[in-house]
Amino acid sequence: MKHILIDADTGIDDSLAILYALRSPNFYVEGITTCFGNNCAEQSADNCLRLIQLAKCGYDVPVAVGANESLDGVFGSAPAYIHGDNGIGNVELPETTQEPINETACDFIIRKAQELKGELIIITTGRMTNLAMALEKDASLPKKVKKVVAMGGCYKVPGNVSPYAEANIHGDARAADMVFKAGFNLTVVGLDVTMKTFITQADVDNLCEYCLEECRPIAEYIKKALRFYFEFHRVTMGMAHASVVHDPLAMLIAEDPSLGVYEMVRAGVEYQSERFSGMITTDDGFVPVLDREEIAICIQVDSVKAVRRLFSVFQNMEPGRYNKKKN
Question: Does a structural domain hold residue 28?
């Protein structure tokens, strides 16, 4: 059982990652912290609370509201045509009586790391602002956390907000650089692999046909949310009834690193140059200039296996359920 904390700017792909984590028998979700990105931190928290209720994971999952702007005081949000006005494809999930806890995201991260004594895995699917703020309060945090898995960045491929940068890293490049150099056991899952991993309408149809009865509301939500996301990909990328897989892939790799192939590098993030802001910089010299530990960047992934696993937690995988002979 892996004890995880999810830090998210809860959009459509974040929501799939969160639902997977809440249903996976291999995860115990210690809590979710939210930040700006796909929408504001408060809207992300509201989305998380509704998703927790939808998942029916069987235990309490606290939600802490975090940063609503970058370390440099800049707020940025994805256009509504990507994730909808509410961040989850304009799907209206039922309200919940659960409310966010009265604790900031960075304080919650520090507390959970202390409580779990080296067993906490942090998975970031948005800006790294909350984690950077936690580092500012507790520089020893990397020694208290087992691992950080971050969805973000572009290593050997172009970015999606500039030729050099991916949205999560670009959204708070200074925070990302702090995290990269802090000494975490860090794995970065970026556009090098997420842009080569696809969810199709066939995957959604299979989910709806074979989902567990208790997961039928989840399947209906995924179907509606991905309809919105598919349309964005059709208009912007020419994809028909399909989308790339960003945040869920980071969650899957956090659960099973063998899904990927990695390159160990000393890396930082450019944040001072406006043109190159968010670009991952590396030090490949024989005598390194960057005084920091190596991080793992995912460069290949078993995409087919990953997508199958993503939907497996909502489905009945009992052999023979659908081919038993009728009397």
Answer: yes
In 27-144, the DSSP E strands lie at 27-34, 63-65, 120-124
- Give the model confidence (pLDDT) of 172-191 as tens digits: 999 999 999 999 999 999 99
- Return the bridge partners of 199, or none: 243
149, β-bridge pairs? 123, 187
CB 47 within 8 A of CB 15: yes
- pLDDT(49) > 50: yes
Total domains present in the chain: 1
Contact status, residue 173 vs residue 132, Cβ threshold 8 Å: no
How many other C-beta atoms are found inside a 10 Å radius of the C-beta of residue 98? 15
Domain-located, residue 320: no
The answer to whether position 242 is within a domain reads yes
Q: Which residues does residue 147 pair with via DSSP β-bridges, in sequence order? A: 121
240 domain-assigned:
yes
CA distance 218 to 162: 34
| Domain boundaries, position 200 | 2-312
Beta bridge partners of 211: 315
* 188 Cα distance to chain centroid: 11
Residues in CB range of 249: below 8 A, 6 or more apart: 151, 189, 193, 194, 197, 301, 306
Residues with a catalytic annotation lie at 9, 246
Residue type (1 letter), 137? K
Q: For residue 157, how many other CB atoms are within 10 A of its CB?
A: 16
175 contacts: CB under 8 Å, gap ≥ 6? 70, 71, 127, 128, 129, 131, 132, 133
Distance in angstroms (rounded) separating the CA atoms of residues 155 and 200: 25
The Cα–Cα gap between 250 and 255 comes to 9
Say if CB 153 and CB 297 are below 8 A apart: yes
Domain with residue 152: its CATH number is 3.90.245.10
pLDDT in tens, 52-102: 999 999 999 999 999 999 999 999 888 888 999 999 999 999 999 999 999
Structure tokens that stand for 296 in this block: 């793992």
pTM here is 0.94
